[in-house]
From TrEMBL:
This is N-acetyltransferase domain-containing protein. The keyword Transferase applies. Residues 64-209 form the N-acetyltransferase domain. GO terms for molecular function: N-acetyltransferase activity. InterPro entries: Acyl_CoA_acyltransferase, GNAT_dom, NAT_camello-type. Keywords: Membrane, Transferase, Transmembrane, Transmembrane helix. The keyword Ribosomal protein does not apply. The chain crosses the membrane at residues 32-54, 60-77. It comes from the Eukaryota.
Length: 223
């Protein structure tokens, strides 16, 4: 078993957690792109584009080039969604982590440390609308790529669940993107259930099928 421990965030962790968060989000670009590329409507659009340019130009090379550029554009559309989210987060709650998470009631931020290295992170906040109520929202879960498979993500989730239970909360809620398959698998194994799905708040979200999945874990009331 890995000799890691979970503790509260310290200011000296600032760069490590921001870098981990950024890498952890952007790494899902490939999976999201492959999902988009597998959509029937995308194949139909690419085929139609190829045939139209072939009909207009009579050039197989030019038509193929246009389709190739269209596929590259799909990659950058998916990359843009994740990059924009990272930029927004780094300039909002991740800008001043101590102030945002450790100096307000109902907020908290933990890191997993192994041999003096920050290898994981997770946060808890009051739930965003429309959830409301007596719940805790799990945020910013991330584990360093080289330290995955050691139970760190599960331990970090459990820390948030314990935090919610001690506060007398009725549930832990969270959201993740469709492409974060490992995260969704973990949440389901831990007893979370999917409550609903919606498209990300980007104009291109429906086109590339970029969906956000919402989960909830109910906490039994102690008698």
């Amino acid at each position: 078993m890995s000799d890691y421990h979970i503790r509260l965030y310290k200011d000296s962790d600032y760069k490590a957690v921001r870098d981990m968060f950024s890498r952890g989000i952007k790494e899902h670009t490939k999976t999201a792109f492959l999902h988009t590329l597998g959509l029937t409507r995308i194949w139909a659009l690419l085929l139609a584009t190829f045939l139209v340019f072939l009909q207009i130009t009579g050039s197989l090379l030019l038509s193929t080039t246009v389709v190739t550029l269209s596929v590259v554009a799909l990659w950058f559309l998916n990359r843009y969604v994740y990059a924009a989210y990272v930029e927004y987060s780094l300039n909002s709650d991740m800008m001043n982590i101590r102030k945002y998470y450790l100096e307000r009631d109902g907020y908290c931020f933990w890191v997993a440390e192994l041999a003096g290295e920050v290898v994981g992170m997770v946060a808890a906040i009051p739930p965003s609308p429309p959830n409301g109520g007596n719940q805790v929202e799990l945020k910013r879960l991330s584990v360093s790529l080289k330290h995955r498979g050691k139970g760190i993500a599960k331990a970090l989730c459990s820390r948030v669940i314990d935090y919610a239970r001690k506060r007398g909360s009725s549930a832990v809620v969270l959201s993740t993107s469709l492409s974060q398959i490992d995260a969704s698998t973990l949440y389901l194994k831990m007893g979370f259930r999917r409550t609903f799905t919606e498209y990300a708040p980007f104009i291109i979200a429906k086109f590339i099928d970029f969906r956000i999945l919402f989960y909830q874990l109910d906490i039994p009331v102690r008698s």
